[in-house]
Amino acid sequence: MSQAFARLFVMDSLVTIIIVVIALIAGAALGWFIANRAYRAAQTSDREAQSNEKALADVLHQQELTTARSVAQTELQQATAPLQQQIAQLQQELAAKQVEAAQLAKQLETLRSDMQRRETESNEQGRMRELLTPVADKLNSLSSTVAELETQRAKQHGEIINQLRQSTAAEAKLHGTAEKLAAALSSNTVRGSWGEQSLRRMLENSGLIARVDFYEQLQLKTDGGSQYPDVTIKLPEDRFIAVDAKAPMQQLVSASDPNINAEQRKQSLQQHAKALRGHIDKLAEREYFKALPDSPELVIAYVPSDGILYQALEVMPDLLEYGYKKQVALVSPVGLWSVLQSIAHTWRKVAIAEDAHSIYELGHLLYQRLGVLAKHIDDHGKHINKTVTSYNALIGSLDRSIVPVTRKLAAYEGSTSIKSDSFVTGFVEADESTRKPTARELQLKPETDTADGDADAAKQ
Fold first, then answer.
1. CB-hemisphere CA count at 13 Å for 120?
2. Ramachandran class of 71: left when φ > 0, alpha when ψ lies in -120 to 50, beta otherwise
3. Among 71, 106, 137, which residue terminates a domain?
4. Are 302 and 195 within 8 A, CB to CB?
5. How far is residue 23 CA from its own chain's centroid?
6. Total domain count, the chain
7. Residues 268 and 199 in one domain
8. Which of 30-34, 96-100, 350-354 tops mean pLDDT?
9. How confident is the model at residue 211 (pLDDT cuts 50, 70, 90)?
10. pTM value?
11. Is residue 118 part of a domain?
């Protein structure tokens, strides 16, 4: 609507300007026409005066003509002066109108640009609304999700608070248990019992059997008297290796105290390492391996926790080498597990070898008994052949001696109780003999070997 109004306003202004210009041009033309007519009328009067008054002198005629021309020019100037003023005024008004028209055109162009910009903005806003509609939907969905998450967060916050309370209670309980454990581990008896139980579990879990593959507190006679290692493990070929479990933890527990500084902790760890080294010295003095002939010349010192050994090695890295020089091997559960698995694997290999040897012995015995069985088979075959010979002799005697007599008896007319077809006839002789074994192992051996085989069979 604003564009149509602007266009109508511009058209009205242009029509007004055109009408004014046409009016000015018409007025100027009318003035020129009147002046020209007066000028022509004056000329006509002069010619008539010249024709009627030929007698006038040329000078008078010229003067009059000059006067008439001057008057005509004056009248013409007087007649055209207002018109020129009007034309100048119209030109000024036209210039002003042109300026106004230019301003209006500029305003119209500005208005058109503004309208186009607004229309573009309106279209862009529409497109933007179309583009933002899914975003708004997502925002609404996200708002719902955030509200739901907030509800869940509040619920989880309550659960976390409950869990923290439970964790605090459990931590307090654990702290009390740790204090009790620290107090218990400060006792040498408790530490020794813990180490022995840990060692026993390791042995049983590795597949070794108590009082078969290992012995607990086995008495050993040494130069220093009777010794009782915690465990004596049996090795193949009647060899043994002694294992002693110790858990020096008093200084390690002190090093774990959170109230001490780094220097005090280092000193406690050094004391802990020295305690392990002292245990190595004691085991080296006992020399268990001297009471175990044909056994490795070393003693295994079992530390029931990897942390106990690693904490000592942290401040005394040469502790293992020190033990090797003393013929004492410090092992943690990981190292002892590897040793026990190797021993168990060795025992399995020994059992397989013993089974293979037993199978070999049984095979050898079976081979010998096959010879005895061959003799029995040969004797049985001979008996069968004798039976066949006796059977054939019996059939021959029956055919030669018995059957002819019975036929003669049946031929008498008065013998009605005896019929010739009441006897079985057609006996066949056994013309095949027994088959002898052809295998070399089943061939008969000399009488001495056979007699030995019979004696062995009788013993078995």
1. 6
2. alpha
3. 137
4. yes
5. 98
6. 3
7. yes
8. 350-354
9. confident
10. 0.42
11. yes
Count of other CB atoms within 10 angstroms of residue 171: 12
* Whole-number Å distance between alpha carbons of 124 and 130: 9
Strand-pairing partners, residue 233, are: 214, 241
Q: Mapping DSSP to helix (H, G, I), strand (E, B) and coil, where does residue 180 land?
A: helix
Helix, strand, coil percentages in the chain from 3-state DSSP, rounded to 5: 75, 5, 20
Q: Name residue 288's amino acid.
A: Y
**E-state strands within 197-339:** 214-216, 220-222, 225-227, 231-235, 239-245, 299-302, 328-331
Residues 359 and 301 occupy one common structural domain: no
Let me know: does 336 contact 202? Beta carbons within 8 Å: yes
Please report the DSSP string for 69-116 in residue order: HHHHHHHHHHHHHHHHHHHHHHHHHHHHHHHHHHHHHHHHHHHHHHHH
Residue 272's domain comprises 189-331
| Amino acid occupying residue 75 | E
Name the nearest CA neighbour of 398 among 417, 424, 422, 420. 424
Q: Which of 299, 331, 363 is the last residue of a domain?
A: 331
Alpha-carbon distance of 452 to 81, in angstroms, equals 179
- pLDDT digit string, tens, across residues 38-75: 667 666 666 765 665 666 566 666 666 677 777 767 77
**Do 133 and 36 lie in a common domain?**
yes
Say if 342 falls within a structural domain: no
